[in-house]
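Task: fold both queries, return tokens.
Query 1:
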Amino acid sequence: MCGILALMGLQEDAQKWRKTAIDLSKKLRHRGPDWTGIYCKGKNILCHERLSVIDPEFGDQPLYSQDGTVVLAVNGEIYNHAGIRESLQKEDALVASVKSHLMSDVPFGVLLSGGLDSSLIASIMARNLPKNSAWPRLHSFSIGLKGSPDLKAARDVAKFLGSIHHEMIFTVQEGLDAISDVVYMTETYVVTSIRASTPMYLMARKIKATGVKMVLSGEGADEIFGGYLYFHKCPDAQEMHEETIRKISQLHKYDCLRANKSMMAWGVESRVPFLDHDFLKFSMSFDPAQKMCEGADGKHRIEKHILRSAFDVGKEEASEPPAEMPYLPDSVLWRQKEQFSDGVGYSWIDGIKANAERQVSDAQLAQAAKRFPINTPKTKEAYFVRQTFHSHFPSDSAARSVEWQDSIACSTATALKWDASFQNRADDSGRSIAGVHNSAYGDSFQVEKKHM
């Protein structure tokens, strides 16, 4: 993540404020930048913190005009500048979005959970690696507890795609040890965000150690296509459309916040092709009934059926090279949704809850409204996370800066009205959707290919 700090029109010579400006600029460095540039002259100071993913050798800022009279600091990258004149009208929308995000002058890879979204991104990347790529083969990265669903699934996808796979196994205790740092880096106390940010934070450190500074991620697909398990209870197409809009509009407060800040804590840039502007316009333009888990034939379908079907091509139909291979094996293409904090290993969430039981007493939880009147935590886990946040950011203004709402399996508060069983649950895990998730807290429910 890059950042800009400017002190303009100072009453004294800028040099007297140089150290102050540098100290203030340092406040941005826990977000991952690896270089600082500074202009300090006359009455003005301009500092730029930069994560050098594009042109690391000559791209330092601030930038100067040839005569030195204009000084500029800017944050932004045109990912597809090399091919901006090429027409993309004939290409698949997601394939085009992924291609446009592959521009990099440093080694890059892909976050691979083994779920549908990250696996699709990885598959498209493997078929379209730039000829001048720093690494000629795709590098994939996954994390999980020993024996976790995501590790096995990611391993199978990596083998299918032929990527050089990096697997990190962490323990519950290692995750618990990192929570304080994760809360500080992500600047949130939302329980589901901390659950998922912690393994991602640990993985980012390993990724940086390999020399990779940019990764592609599958964030955004669940919001666009109604991929969370609670969408199985969506009552109609109109509500489907409105809920996806609500979810997309909140991404910067939750999933994208997690993916961005937990990666940037170690100087790794995360790019999200599903949220590419052109792809977003395309995917939000068609009939929301196509995203419903109940098809026109009345049969109940697996979530994100429309996305899965789009890439369910046989050997003859796979137009991108290598044409003889499908994008993904059926076991991955039609794998049920796992929230990241579930997929890394169910005992991770159970471990956080057990730790909170040890750390927070019944009496403390009973007095939570007095201790934390702003967004009062309702569970011991939420209390523990909130207490950790308070240790880093004790002001009321910091507490108010965090968006918080009642939720089930990452739903918005509005969607809690969809089903009576949603009303009295305080757990954001996908397993809390009884009757939908294979390992739900409640009745079992089997998933068949293409239908549920």
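Query 1 returned. Query 2:
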Amino acid sequence: MRYLLVGLLLLASSALAGDLIGQPAPAFRGETLAGEPFDLADYLGKTPIVLHFWTSWCSLCRDEAPYWAWAQREHGDRVLIVGVNMTFQDTPDEARSFVKAYRWDFPVLADGTHAVAAAYGVVVTTSPTTFFIGIDGTVVGRRIGAYKDKDAIEQDLLRLIHWRP
């Protein structure tokens, strides 16, 4: 019975995430791992946004983490990268250690209640998951799984940066 419920949750979350493409991005408020307030609504409709969902224990998240630090250095002036740590599966200390180790220099939200992940249809088994939000605030893309190299991230970032409604 438990496996049936997990399967239904995965199916529902996947369908929700797919339904977001072409829709306004769900806004959310929270606190970053640094203790700063964060409100996505402050950025929607003003700049392209990347929402990157991850956990510290995810091996794929660790594999691609250096590419996100590189992406911030190379493209952070043209796109807002926001990490969303699924702290309902991590402790804040584990998440902060991960961010420090990989030298992430972009806002990282602590999603301890699972509210942000749920709004985007992300479940832990699909970590990492990345959403791309166009300059008009519309969800224009989603990637489930890790990037294998920085060229793949760059292609998606450039596509997002140049995307127009």
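Both queries returned. Flag for query 2: The first strand starts at residue 29 and ends at 31.
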